[in-house]
């Protein structure tokens, strides 16, 4: 496992964590992040989401929501998700605030907005290391089922990338093959550390 | 000590190095080396100078990880000890070419650090002192060498991973070499970390470096990058490189806004329409571009300002492009390949040669504004590269053309080159578009997406212009393929067809890169294959083609331009040569074939002239490899050639108008030479000849051409170019003589597969074209012809649609809705559809859906075609009175639900329905007259008793009675006339549900319609009434019905009250009716249960007077009452009411009253023992006693024998009331007494002696048992003497005594009877 992966979504809860969890189980060197301003979880209604700061431990959120309405959050899968998340890592991390985590080789995003934010953030950093980083976006809807599918696809793709010597040479083929096989559109970009 | 340590470290280092060298295992090696690095860098740096060269020896190590680590170590060491760089950089340069990308990448990464550091050091040292260290100078010199080694990597094909970094390296250099606006341009006084670096510090002067030179170098490097993204190169790049280039350039633009003017034009030039990067991955590039543009937009620098508008525009375009993207991708995925349009590009080439320096031409695809770029150093390169590309295209064509040279002066007509330039000089945009298409096509299938976008983005008009401008490229001859042997010629055939006759086809239709080939070969092949054979199988051929084309295309997929095309050509040629040879043999006419290229050289059987080709071939080859410079030197030639070419082009045009097949006359073939601008060729000599064709040949040719266009639908379908295909077909249909039966062909095509052939669209096209033709009215004949063709065509299509499509299909309806007008024939068709004839629907009437289909079409037409509205309405209405009920009901639903609500036609519908309704009344069949009279009589109130069969019956049973009672002869006519009546009235009834005011008419007409019609009405009315409910109109009718409609009214009332609670309005309407007009209590029965006691009692005698069954119904209703108020009359009340009827006064026959009573007694569960007791109790108090009282008593005791004691009480009370004074009751009394003996004996004994005497006289048989009863000692003692005397138990001795006793006795019994009465009253109150 020579590449370092980052899974990035908006809140570092569902899509990125699903992928993080899956890749971690598969032995990948993987981290996960969110690019949003806050961590947002569905609340009792659309207008009342539960908002947390990045860095708030998943366990804390779990306890908080369980106190608020255990039935609701169990039913909509939030509690199980938080439980899963807390078994993967302590707390959601914000991409922009964790530049110190070092270089990744592959950054996987699950939403075009996130993709753009990651690229913008990377471009704003200084490119001192001259280390290339692949940023791939796969649009995944933010629900549990799609997240599971998305994570599987991300794993597939990461395995493909691991399998080649130099992803820079193979990326076009890999992406094309992936798109053909899964009928999903990928957008990628290359940036540098 | 220190020395010791140093020595130790040195030894350690040596041993580490040796171990690293000798170790066979890579991980171990790496470990040793890392330790060595640690030692050298941190423990004893003094060892480095010794070790640097020795390390360099490792550069040839076989293990790539070792080499990579070494490259990394060089960086680490070099950063700290720059003086060592001269010894290590060569290794780094060596690594750049390493076969393992990772090593080369590391080398570039390392080199980039080093370069930056060395540069900074050089600059800062130079600022501080006027002289530099030698070692530093030497290091810098090596760094420059290194840089020069990296630069080519960025532009040469190779590992993308390495290339990306090389690009990045160049970006770094550009940034380093140019002033950073964000960093102070004043040089720092002393070096310190993190202060940034700005090359402009050098302005003050530097021993080694010069700001201007560096800026120049940066500019050149930038150009290097920009050129990558320019037109021809960009398409050979992989996506990742394009992305990185875009990112890098936008980063440079952001950081060095002064470069905006150079970078943005290139980026903007990469707009979605023209930048096609390896075909597939366009979205990524778009995305990168979008981000780049966004980033550039954010820049606030002043030099960025002028670009904003264009950036915004470009962003919009990208967004639009992304929307279009999926579609493009889809096409690509489906295996579609780009049509090539090579023949489009020559005009453009003309232009280049004509207007040598016309820069506008140079960037066709890229919409760059050249004015803004004139100063751009790189501009020249762009021009030349483009030109190279264009001419290479041209060269290809020349190649092809040269094939057609023939020793036998048989020349092949190749209208490749058009004179668009000279002709369409006026139409600027068209011209530009044509060139643009040309340029795109020149890129082969990679430009598919762009072409697609281009085609879809220009207006139809413009597209048409382009097509017309290209029409002259149509092949002048119409070759006819012949069976299977010519599969290959079909290749040419089809592709030639695609590329020539439909130049503006969408890109994905057919193979692309074979292009030049296909445009020339088809000519070859087709000419060879012209044979007057009528049978061919085009589709087969085309299938073959497609396979072939694909194969060829695959071969040409690699991006490089010229060489590949040649390869392709040659690859596909052998195939094309063979069949043409076949043909040659077959025809017996030696039609020489000139194929081409290498294959030609080697062997084309039967061709002698190949050698003559070879020379040309060679020169062609030369030209393919020729560079831009070469082209330029030859421009002069081109200008000369162009004039020749124009001539030819005009000839081509003539030829095109009269296509001539050229086989029979072997001597002469039409020959148009076409010329390209490839400068270094000398044109083959051309002769122009004419061929006279027989009329049959001409016709045949035309037909074949038409078929060819027609059969191209497959390609069209894939490409979606039907908006061109269809008008072309319809136009040809109009233009061709009728004998050719183009319409028939077209029709057959449309109908063979309506769906897949876009039959609807094509049919519409054809019809509109014909309509125009007819309406133009140029001359009588043609317009009449067009009209008749129009009608037959439409009718044929409509009939086929009707016959072949499932009934639920909407195609027919849609077609009829959209055609220019509807001829009568089609309307007739619709009529037949909506009103199927009898014999027909018997056999296929399971498809009642057909009617639905027809009706929905009619409805559609009524909605959409006001001019046909009346006619269509008529069709619908006819269908609505169709004899078959299923048809009729469908039509009625349509008319009533959909059409009737339309204000414009509702009046007509209403009138029609009324007429139909009236017709029922008018057409009274003679046979029914009597019946009608009978029923009319029956309506009169008193007719019921006299005329039971035809007489007045309760309406629900009316049908049944009449059907069963009428004689059998009548029966048939009746049932048929019922259905006939139903046919006529159904529509009206349906309308009533929509418009309640129509109801009255039904009532009004009711009395004058025949019996059968009445039955029909009776069937309908309950449904109708249930649908409407108690609407105000209906209530109005109820309260004031037309005379003669009573029985209908009854039916309505029954329906209205059946199972539902009638509204108060309804009840009051009925009451009103009863009181005002219609004194028949009959009508009250339905609402009886909802009337109050006070209302019922006055009419109660009338109710009793009703026929028994009605009375029973009324009885039930009264007892049942309404759910809210309970029964209107309780059972005792009813019985009492019955007894209250005075037959004399109320004019009710006594029998009726008796029957009513009996009816009550029949309902023992309602009129129970208690009820009877109560009733009798009350009745007995009435004065006078009711007439039927005793009868009721007798009946009561008959029904309930247990009442006997109670009855005895009653009887004794009657005695007190001196019952003998009422002769009728007295009879009843005695009758009762007889019936109830022996219990009645005690009562009889209470009678006064004279009455007892009377009774015994009337009923002598009583005397003995009564006497016996009285003779019992205990009874005898209580009896007055007079009674005993009457009974003959005592002799009449004391006449006065017993009378007294009897009186007192009578008083006694009277009081006791009163006691009983009060008792019973109490009881009855308790019961009630």
TrEMBL record, chain A:
Protein name (database record): RNA polymerase II subunit A C-terminal domain phosphatase SSU72
Function: Protein phosphatase that catalyzes the dephosphorylation of the C-terminal domain of RNA polymerase II. Plays a role in RNA processing and termination.
Single Gene Ontology MF annotation: RNA polymerase II CTD heptapeptide repeat phosphatase activity
EC number(s) stated in the UniProt entry for this protein: 3.1.3.16
Principal location listed in the UniProt entry: nucleus
Enzyme class: hydrolase
GO biological process: mRNA 3'-end processing
Any one Gene Ontology cellular component term annotated for this protein: nucleus
Subcellular location: Nucleus
Family of the protein in this entry: Belongs to the SSU72 phosphatase family.
InterPro entries xref list: RNA_pol_II_suA
Key words of the record: Hydrolase, mRNA processing, Nucleus, Protein phosphatase
Protein's UniProt keywords contain Thylakoid: no
Catalytic activity: O-phospho-L-seryl-[protein] + H2O = L-seryl-[protein] + phosphate; O-phospho-L-threonyl-[protein] + H2O = L-threonyl-[protein] + phosphate
Protein's UniProt keywords contain Hydrolase: yes
Domain of life: Eukaryota
TrEMBL record, chain B:
Ranges annotated as biased composition (Polar residues): 608-631, 964-975, 1295-1312, 1319-1328
SUPFAM superfamilies the record matches: ARM repeat
Domain Symplekin C-terminal: 1080-1257
Renumbered residue ranges of the record's region Disordered: 385-404, 601-631, 935-975, 1295-1328
Domain Symplekin/Pta1 N-terminal: start-end pairs: 101-319
InterPro entries referenced in this protein's UniProt entry, alphabetically: ARM-like, ARM-type_fold, Symplekin/Pta1_N, Symplekin_C
UniProt cross-references to PANTHER family, sorted A to Z: PHOSPHATIDYLINOSITOL 3-AND 4-KINASE FAMILY PROTEIN-RELATED (PTHR47184), SYMPLEKIN (PTHR47184:SF2)
Protein name: Symplekin isoform X1
Encoding gene per record: LOC103709595
